[in-house]
Design goal:
The relative contact order is 0.15. The strands form six sheets. The protein has a 22-stranded antiparallel beta barrel. By secondary structure, the chain is mainly β. It is about 5% helix and about 60% strand.
Length: about 600
């Protein structure tokens, strides 16, 4: 059995941090980057025991990346397999795990849908994103099902003040428009961001490998909007509202139907959330959150039309208690998910009740993190998970880290209730992970080497009659390394991953996972000019398509970006993707994005 046949379920926790702006800014200045993803409580990035990376708004603007996936692919441990160009279906693999073993939250709202447990990050444009935190490794005890390979927390635009606009054109008939406004006064803060992107695209399929498909161009159009409003009257005393809507229209080529057929799908994602944060006592902060996701996919322009809409509403109450050297968290959550589709499911609703607790402490050179979680599912029962993490500061700059944890993945609705092969008696998939690493942080240099190993059992696959059953075992193990430093005025970022992701029964490599991949990025400012070069490389990968094993060759892609600040408020930008026009595939028969040149003008008032 192969890991790509696994179909875990969508069950995750809602968590939104809404602190007073003055407090957040003070913490950022005094402690360096602050994250909430590694322990579900604010802590300096340097203290995070799970291996955590941050993508800032400055990173996004310097790279000029049009979508979030481009930036994620540059991080250690992260592989992105996109079936064509921007907006097309994408799988994300963290540390060799399956695409369904990655949890994504937008402003704290879980994004993974109910039928396949996939998160449509391919529909999230960079114009809507303020910040991203990526936790690599098993954090199921923090976030529940799916967070086996890790969790990706996306925060929409909020920081800063003023008005900004961007207009751009480029290869393949690409046009983009962006605009936003942010500001506040007297404790009030607001932010609004609008964006639109259109491209005529390219023929995403290789006709030689997938004959009989339409050779036309496959275009994409996206319209997105996000908004945020908050009021803070004291430290840890605030209320906030946030929302996001993105709609993508994708043209693609199906292998079903005549070669002249023009296939098209429309996907709409909507999230909404509200947060009330209150300091009930000097050492006790309580936070009540509610969030809702709607993920609607309409693929009615194709040989076999279908539609599916997944919704999720979650209420969460988290309490943070300061115990001097320790910080404790206690939380209760309730998630209700529904599905509506042209496929008739025997059950169309799921509820998950959750209790979780955490303890984070520093005792001199020693650091400890403990997390426990219990999820009660209405359709298959109870799953419990735990995490134990330890850090030892050898010096102020050097720290050793280690952790052990277990995880689960709930069966999806397709696994349990699909009328053709669904099995309501499926057990959740189970995992156990161990990690060890060393971290160095001094001045402008940060480096981390992490070793990891995860064992999977009860993976969901198919029997001879194509019924879903618990049959699979797999192992992923390897090492990831990251370095961020400054030398001679240049900022350099290096990421490398070596991994072995194997089906235990057959000994075969799991599909679309490379044994080695990495990224090198250098950037520098010369007066009014900002320059960046990014080289991404991957080794060969195994794929399974059209009933046979396939080998996807290794590749290296160079992206370039430059900006010229003509005036304080006016900027010209130029980006070249795949500068050497390298031909590559992330999935058999699907072409990677060819060379493209894009220019834009930006105004910031």
């Amino acid at each position: 059995m192969q890991l790509h046949h696994v179909a875990p379920a969508a069950a995750a926790a809602l968590f939104v941090v809404s602190a007073s702006p003055s407090f957040a800014q003070t913490a950022q200045q005094s402690l360096g980057p602050v994250v909430v993803s590694a322990a579900r409580i604010e802590q300096p990035l340097a203290d995070a025991l799970p291996n955590t990376s941050v993508i800032t708004r400055a990173d996004i603007e310097l790279s000029q990346a049009p979508d979030l996936l481009t930036l994620l692919a540059r991080l250690p441990g992260v592989e992105v397999a996109q079936l064509g160009g921007i907006g097309s279906q994408t799988g994300i693999f963290l540390r060799g795990g399956d695409t369904r073993h990655v949890l994504v939250l937008i402003d704290g709202v879980p994004m993974n849908n109910l039928n396949f447990s996939l998160a449509s990050l391919d529909q999230i444009m960079a114009a809507q994103v303020e910040r991203v935190e990526i936790v690599r490794g098993n954090v199921s005890s923090l976030y529940g099902s799916q967070a086996v390979g890790g969790a990706i927390l996306v925060f929409t635009r909020a920081d800063g003040s003023g008005i900004d606009a961007r207009a751009g054109i480029g290869s393949r008939g690409t046009t983009e428009l962006q605009g936003g406004a942010r500001g506040g006064a007297g404790g009030w803060r607001y932010g609004v961001a609008l964006s639109g992107l259109h491209t005529d695209g390219f023929n995403q399929l290789n006709q030689t490998e997938r004959p009989g498909t339409n050779p036309d161009r496959d275009g994409y159009r996206n319209e997105s909007a996000s908004a945020r409003l908050s009021y803070a009257w004291a430290q840890d005393q605030s209320v906030s509202l946030h929302g996001l809507r993105t709609r993508g229209r994708l043209q693609y080529d199906s292998e079903f139907g005549p070669a002249t057929q023009a296939d098209e799908s429309v996907q709409t994602i909507e999230t909404f959330g509200a947060v009330a944060r209150n300091r009930l006592a000097p050492r006790w902060v309580s936070q009540l959150s509610i969030g809702r996701l709607r993920d609607a996919l309409d693929a009615r322009v194709t040989a076999f039309p279908y539609f599916v809409t997944s919704t999720g509403t979650q209420l969460a109450w988290q309490n943070e208690i300061d115990l001097d050297r320790w910080k404790a968290t206690l939380a209760a959550e309730r998630l209700r998910q529904t599905i509506d589709s042209d496929t008739t499911y025997n059950v169309s609703e799921r509820t998950v009740n959750t209790l979780r607790a955490g303890l984070l402490g520093n005792l001199g050179a020693h650091q400890l993190q403990l997390n426990a979680r219990r999820d009660d599912y209405s359709d298959f029962g109870v799953a419990s998970t735990g995490y134990v993490g330890y850090g030892y500061a050898v010096t102020n700059a050097l720290k050793l880290v280690a952790s052990a944890s277990n995880a689960f993945n709930a069966p999806t609705f397709n696994d349990l209730f699909y009328p053709f092969g669904g099995n309501p008696n499926l057990r959740p998939e189970r995992m156990r992970s161990v990690e060890a690493g060393v971290q160095y942080r001094a001045g402008a240099t940060a480096a981390r080497l992490q070793l990891f190993r995860t064992r999977y059992r009860d993976l969901i696959g198919f029997d001879a009659a194509f019924n879903r059953v618990n049959i699979g075992r797999a192992t992923t193990q390897g090492a990831e390394f990251s370095l961020d430093t400054v030398f001679g005025g240049w900022r350099a970022r290096f990421a490398a991953t070596l991994q072995d992701a194997t089906d235990d029964a057959t000994g075969e490599r799991l599909i679309r996972r490379a044994r080695a991949f990495g990224n090198v990025q250098v950037s520098r400012t010369f007066g009014v000019f900002d320059l960046q070069a990014n080289l991404h490389a991957s080794g060969d990968r195994r794929d399974r398509a059209l009933g046979a094993d396939r080998l996807l060759g290794g590749y290296a892609v160079l992206d370039l970006a430059a900006r010229w600040r003509m005036q304080r408020d006016l900027l010209l930008a130029l980006r070249v993707d795949n500068a050497f026009d390298h031909t590559f595939e992330n999935a058999y028969g699907y072409r990677g994005t060819p060379r493209g040149v894009f220019g834009a003008i930006e105004v910031n008032l």
